[in-house]
Amino acid sequence: MKKSFLFSLLMLWVMAAGAAPKADYGQVVPVPDKIVYNAKGGDYVLSATTVIAYPAHDAAMERDAAFLAQYVKDMTRLDLPTVPVKSKGKGGITLTLDRKARLAPEAYVITVDRRGVTVTGATPAGVFYGIQTLRKALPVLSEAQSVELPAARLEAQPRFGYRGLMLDCSRHFFPVKFVKQYIDLLALHGMNRFHWHLSDDQGWRFPVPGYPRLTEVGSKRAQTVMGHNSEVLDGTPYGGYYTDEEIRDIVKYAADRYITIVPEVDMPGHMMAALAAYPELGCTGGPYKTGEYWGVYPDILCAGNEKTYAFVKAVLDHVCDLFPSKYIHIGGDESPRVRWEHCPRCQTMIARQGLKDRDGHAKEALLQGYFAHRVQQYLETKGRHIIGWDELLECDVDTSATIMSWRGAEPGAKGATMGHDIIMSPSNALYFDYYQSKDQSSEPPAIGGFSDVANVYNMEPVPAELTPQAKAHIKGVQANLWTEYISNPNQAEYMILPRMAALAEVQWLQPAEKDFGAFRKRVSSLRHIYDLYGYTYAHHLWPEEFRKGARQY
Ligand code: ACM
Ligand code: ZN
C-alpha cells in the first residue's frame, strides 16, 4: 500500500516534471545557423530565482538586459532582476561582449548548460539578436512557471548587413504609437533598418525650418479618392505630421533597438504636397494641390530654378539634424520629365550644363542626374550618402549612390555590375502592399499584384549570373509597405505579418539553410508571439482559422 502510494506520488511528480514547459530553439524565426544540443550539459531551469547579469558600466548592455527581462516577463510572467557584474557572472543569464571580436558585428552565440545561459556578441547589437532568439524560443505562458532550456550551443550571423522594412506615412499617416510598434516588429524579426517614407504627393509629414507651409498646407489634403482611383472622392479632409520632438523620440526608440531609420524625402517627383505649399518650386508655378488621387503626377520640382536647390538644402539640413543615418534616401522614382521638356528654366539649365541626349539617356534624364548629383554632393559635405530608387540608374548618377532595386531584381543586377551598392526590394516579391491571396474578394483592399508568404520566402536576392565582385555589392534586402490602400494600423499589420517572418529568413539565412516546410512550422510558433502582443496577422498559412471566422483586420 505504502509502496504503491509512493509510486503514485513519484508518477505525479514525473508527470508534473514532464509537463514543464520547454524552450525550443528550433522554432525560432529566423532560425539560428547552428543548434548543437549537448545531452550531457543538463537543462537550465529558468525560474523566479534567475538573474540577468550584464557588464557593469555598459549602458547598451544594461538596456539589452532590461529588454530581455521585459521579454521574459511577457512570455513566461517571470519577473527577473537585472544586475551589473564586473566579471563573468556565474549562473543565471549572462550577457557578455566577445572582447576578442571573433564574431561578426551582429552575430551571436548562446550557450546553455545546467548552470546557466550565456549570450555573447561582438557588439551589444549581436547580444540583442541573441536576446531576440532566446525570447522567441520561450513558450508563451499564462501564469509564471519555470521553463527548461535544453543544454545547447546556438550560433547565428545575418547574411545581409542591411535588413529593412519600409513604411509609407505619406499616403496614410500613422500615429507615433504605431510607428514604435512597427519598430518593435522590426526588432522581433531581427531587422536593422526602418525606411521611413515621409513625403509624397499626398502628404508632407515633417517640419522644415523656413518652410512652415510644408506642414500648414502640405501635410493636408482636402479629400481622398475612393477605391482604385474611382471618380468618387470621399470629401473628408485628411492630414498629419510628426513634430521634431516626436521624430527625435522615434529615432532614439529605434536606436535603442539597434535600428537605423533611413528617412526618405522623395525628389524631384512625388512632390505635389510641397508644390501645393510652395508653387514657385514647380515649373509652371501652379496652382497645385496636395494629391487626392494615387499614382504619378506630371508636376515635379523645377530643376532649373535655384530656389529649388535652396529648398532641397533646407530640407536635407533638417533631415540630417533629425536623423543620424549615414544614408539618406532621396527617392528619384517615377519622375516624369514632361514639364522639364517645356520649362524655359529647365532647358536653360540643360544648356548651361552642356547636357545632350546620349547613350540612350534623354537630356532631361541627364538633368535628373545633375539634380541627384547636386543633392549627393551636398549630402557628402555632411558625411552622408544617398540611396535612391533604381530610376537613378537611368540618370547616369555616380556609383557612390546606393540603389534600391524595386522594378524587379534586374535593375539591381545591372547596378551591381556598374559598381553601385544595391538593396534588393523587388516589387514582385517584396511589395507588402500586394495581395497575399489570389482570392482578392476576401482580402482588404491592396494595390494589386500577388506575393504570398512562400513567394517572399523563396526570393533570392543575389542574382546567380553576377560575378563575385558584383555579388558583393548586394548589401541588403528590404520589403516595402506603400499605404495608398492601407488606412489603419490593423490593416498594416495584416499586410506585413507573417510575410515579415519570411523576409527575416531571407535576410538572415544562407540559401542552403532555407526550407519552407520547416519555416511553416517555425512561423506557427512565432504567431503565438503575435497573439501575445495582439498583432493582427494574415491567416493564410492556417486556413482552419478562416473557417472559425477569426478577425483579420
Ligand atoms: C516605387 O514603388 N515607386 C519605388
Ligand atoms: Zn523647370
Which labels suit this protein?
553 residues; alpha/beta; 8-stranded parallel beta sheet; 7-stranded mixed beta sheet; 19 helices; 23 strands; 17% strand; globular; binds acetamide; binds zinc ion
Structural write-up:
The protein is an alpha/beta fold. An eight-stranded parallel beta sheet has the order 16-11-10-23-20-19-18-17. Strands 1-9-6-7-5-3-4 form a seven-stranded mixed beta sheet. A two-stranded antiparallel sheet has the order 2-8. A hairpin with a 2-residue loop joins strand 6 and strand 7. Residues 5-16 have low confidence and may be disordered. Zinc ion is lined by residues 283, 302-304, 340, 343, 345-346.
Q: What is the strand and helix layout of this fold?
A:
Elements lengths: L1 H17 L15 E4 L6 E3 L5 E4 L3 H18 L5 E4 L6 E6 L10 E6 L2 E6 L2 H14 L9 E3 L2 E5 L5 E7 L7 H13 L4 E5 L1 E2 L2 E2 L8 H4 L3 E2 L16 E2 L4 H13 L3 E5 L7 H6 L28 H17 L4 E3 L8 H5 L1 H9 L10 H19 L3 E5 L12 E4 L4 H9 L3 E3 L2 H4 L3 E2 L12 E3 L2 H5 L10 H4 L2 E8 L7 H8 L2 H10 L7 H18 L9 H5 L6
Parallel strand pairs: 3-4, 3-5, 5-7, 10-11, 10-23, 11-16, 17-18, 18-19, 19-20, 20-23, 21-22
Antiparallel strand pairs: 1-9, 2-8, 6-7, 6-9, 12-13, 14-15
Helix pairs in contact: 2-3, 4-6, 8-11, 10-11
Bound molecules: acetamide and zinc ion (ZN).
The site of acetamide (ACM) has 4 residues, from loops.
